[in-house]
């Protein structure tokens, strides 16, 4: 017996995407951060299918994507003042806000938590799509659970193409790292749970000093923020690249650097994320570089710590998780 796997169709047909989603099917959608695996967030069968396709544990809640504050208001009990300020300044954009959910949102979407993660993405195609829909889109990153997130339609096709009917192709993601996740603690103070595309410095300019509660353990109360995540299948080591190259000189090495190149390494096994030392450019190229390295004939990926400012913080967070076993 042989089985024929049918691959997803690529395209920019938002009407087709809207039709499929309305019928409870899943569609991959572009956002400025990473591609999402989208389904109707109010339809439990569609949500179950997302968990299944991603092989994602059900304790890891999904983000609901939408396109207007009016719609958000029909999903949450209220929007606290600080959250409103953030929404005003940063939506649409790479920021996800945790808000108290209304009862009609499925518990499956939020893994039983009283809060729902809401995001208004900036990508034009997806905004137009959301405008056509009368339901929010649940969309985790469109990769198998634990692997590197996709930043092109081809990345989605490579891993999930045989499991979904359609990939809305919006080109390469302009930010390249998942959204920053912010919520509010018992004293209504802002807390960042995941570093991401919206820089901490920008957020603090709007709501003042924020707490970071970035979890690097397998704490189920912080679902999805698992210690090992965003990981290619090859081992990654982070450190001073010239020293690492000496230390591992007997191995077949791949190097992902911020801006330097190294004479000891064949050029085809080196990926420079930003020759002009631009952290935003480096972020944009990071996940693609991890995927490319994963396919090369090497046994170890070496990389370095990035400057811990701006989106460099999120880059370091992702690399740390990718390197942890
Ligand atoms: O940029 C992004 O955020 C992308 C694009 C597609 O929008 N989406 C994304 O989704 O990264 P996902 O599922 O890969 O990551 C969502 C994270 C998970 O770590 C989950 O645990 C957390 O959001 N999350 C969702 N709802 C939550 C909640 N109510 N409380 C705490 N964390 C929550
Ligand atoms: Mg993810």
What does this structure look like?
The protein has helices at 14-22, 44-54, 69-73, 81-90, 124-132, 153-160, 200-207, 241-247, 279-294, 312-323; strands at 9-11, 27-29, 36-40, 63-65, 95-100, 115-119, 137-138, 166-168, 180-184, 190-194, 211-212, 236-238, 253-257, 270-272, 300-303. With 325 residues, the chain is an alpha/beta fold. The chain folds into two domains: 9-212, DHBP synthase (Alpha-Beta Complex), CATH 3.90.870.10; 235-323, Rossmann fold. Helix 1 packs across helix 5 (124-132). The longest helix is centred in the C-terminal third of the chain and has 16 residues, at 279-294. The two termini are 37 Å apart. The relative contact order is 0.15. The mean pLDDT is 94. The protein binds threonylcarbamoyladenylate and magnesium ion (MG). Threonylcarbamoyladenylate (TXA) is lined by residues 31, 33-34, 36, 60-63, 96, 98, 110, 113, 115-117, 119, 139-141, 178-179, 181, 193, 223-225.
Comma- or semicolon-separated keywords:
15 strands; Rossmann fold; alpha/beta; globular; 325 residues; 11-stranded mixed beta sheet; binds threonylcarbamoyladenylate; 4-stranded parallel beta sheet; DHBP synthase; binds magnesium ion
List the helices and strands and how they pair.
Elements: E1 9-11, H1 14-22, E2 27-29, E3 36-40, H2 44-54, E4 63-65, H3 69-73, H4 81-90, E5 95-100, E6 115-119, H5 124-132, E7 137-138, H6 153-160, E8 166-168, E9 180-184, E10 190-194, H7 200-207, E11 211-212, E12 236-238, H8 241-247, E13 253-257, E14 270-272, H9 279-294, E15 300-303, H10 312-323
Parallel strand pairs: 1-8, 2-8, 4-6, 5-9, 10-11, 12-15, 13-14, 13-15
Antiparallel strand pairs: 2-3, 3-7, 4-7, 5-6, 9-10
Bound molecules: threonylcarbamoyladenylate (TXA) and magnesium ion.
Threonylcarbamoyladenylate binds next to β5 and β6.
């Amino acid at each position: 017996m042989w089985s024929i796997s049918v691959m997803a169709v690529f395209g920019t047909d938002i009407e087709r995407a809207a039709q499929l989603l309305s019928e409870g099917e899943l569609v991959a959608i572009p956002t400025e951060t990473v591609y999402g695996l989208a389904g109707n967030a109010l339809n439990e069968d569609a949500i179950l299918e997302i968990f299944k396709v991603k092989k994602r544990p059900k304790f890891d809640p999904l983000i609901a994507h939408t396109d207007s504050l009016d719609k958000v208001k029909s999903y949450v009990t209220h929007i606290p003042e600080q959250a409103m300020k953030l929404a005003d300044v940063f939506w649409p954009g790479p920021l996800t806000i945790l808000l108290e959910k209304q009862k009609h949102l499925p518990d499956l979407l939020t893994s039983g938590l009283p809060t729902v993660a809401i995001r208004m993405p900036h990508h034009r195609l997806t905004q137009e799509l959301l405008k056509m829909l009368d339901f929010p889109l649940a969309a985790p990153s469109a990769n198998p659970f634990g692997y590197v997130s996709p930043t092109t339609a081809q990345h989605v096709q490579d891993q999930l193409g045989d499991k979904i009917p359609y990939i809305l192709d919006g080109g390469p993601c302009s930010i390249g790292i998942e959204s920053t996740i912010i919520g509010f603690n018992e004293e209504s103070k802002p807390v960042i749970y995941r570093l991401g595309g919206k820089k901490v410095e920008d957020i603090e300019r709007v709501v003042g000093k924020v707490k970071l509660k970035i979890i690097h353990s397998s704490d189920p109360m912080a679902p999805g923020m698992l210690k090992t995540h965003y990981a290619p299948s090859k081992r990654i080591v982070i450190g001073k690249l010239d020293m690492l190259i000496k230390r591992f000189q007997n191995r077949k090495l791949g190097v992902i650097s911020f801006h330097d190149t190294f004479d000891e390494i064949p050029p085809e096994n080196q990926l420079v994320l930003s020759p002009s030392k631009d952290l935003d450019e480096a972020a944009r190229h990071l996940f693609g570089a991890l995927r490319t390295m994963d396919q090369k004939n090497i046994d170890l990926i070496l990389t370095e710590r990035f400057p811990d400012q701006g989106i460099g913080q999120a880059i370091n967070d992702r690399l740390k998780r990718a390197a942890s076993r």
